[in-house]
UniProtKB/TrEMBL annotation:
Active site: 8 (tele-phosphohistidine intermediate), 84 (proton donor/acceptor)
The organism's place on the tree of life at top rank: Bacteria
SUPFAM superfamilies named among the record's database cross-references: Phosphoglycerate mutase-like
UniProt binding sites for substrate: 7-14, 59
Origin species: Leucobacter tardus
Record SMART domains: PGAM (SM00855)
Identification of the protein by name: Histidine phosphatase family protein
Gene Ontology, cellular component aspect: cytoplasm
């Protein structure tokens, strides 16, 4: 199976550099345009995708629906495990203030990075288990969930995985186990040079 995790399009909180977490912020018009552009790139790539899934949060679901309509890839619904990290007391804070307060990301009241990565991998496994072998899946999720999943699979610290642009695509392949193929559209070696 090949699975592409796509970060949702821009929201006003992204623009303001606020921690969104599970706060259900909608796409802004730039985010909708980014989703249309991502759809064009997916179409131009010529790869055959079987379905597109989404986090239950509206910014991810709308991104998925825009891509589905523009590419004619069927929308397969939401997967709860694709939801963003719960940042507890950090939700709504400006990102710089968040890292000033919790430079090690040990914010209270939320889901911590080790739990996040484990959930991300479990969710990928659930998607594999729910679809026939060889299915190719697009899934729209969130920056921290994608980074946490990559960190877990690569056994590297969360903060070593680069921040992902809105609507960037990270590709995963599954044979016996999961393998990270690209991170935000670039090779693993380019994204995390120390891994080579």
């Amino acid at each position: 199976m090949e699975l592409a995790l796509i970060r949702h399009g821009q929201t006003d909180w992204n623009l303001d550099e606020r921690v969104q977490g599970r706060t259900d912020i909608p796409l802004n018009e730039t985010g909708r345009e980014q989703a249309r552009t991502a759809a064009e790139l997916i179409r131009a790539d010529g790869a055959d995708w079987d379905l597109i899934l989404s986090s239950p949060l509206q910014r991810a679901r709308e991104t998925a629906e825009i891509i589905a309509e523009a590419t004619a890839v069927p929308f397969g619904g939401v997967v709860d495990g694709l939801i963003e990290q719960n940042f507890g007391e950090g939700e709504g804070m400006v990102v710089a203030e968040f890292y000033d307060r919790w430079p090690n990301r040990d914010f209270p009241g939320g889901e911590h990075d080790d739990e996040l990565g484990a959930r991300g991998v479990r969710t990928l496994d659930e998607i594999v288990g729910a679809h026939p072998s060889g299915t190719r899946v697009l899934a729209v999720s969130h920056g921290s969930l994608i980074r946490g999943t990559i960190a877990r699979l690569m056994r590297t610290p969360y903060k070593q995985v680069p921040r992902l642009d809105n609507t960037s695509i990270s590709l995963f392949a599954h044979d016996e186990d999961w393998r990270v193929v690209t991170i935000g559209g670039v090779s693993v070696a380019e994204a995390i040079p120390t891994t080579v």
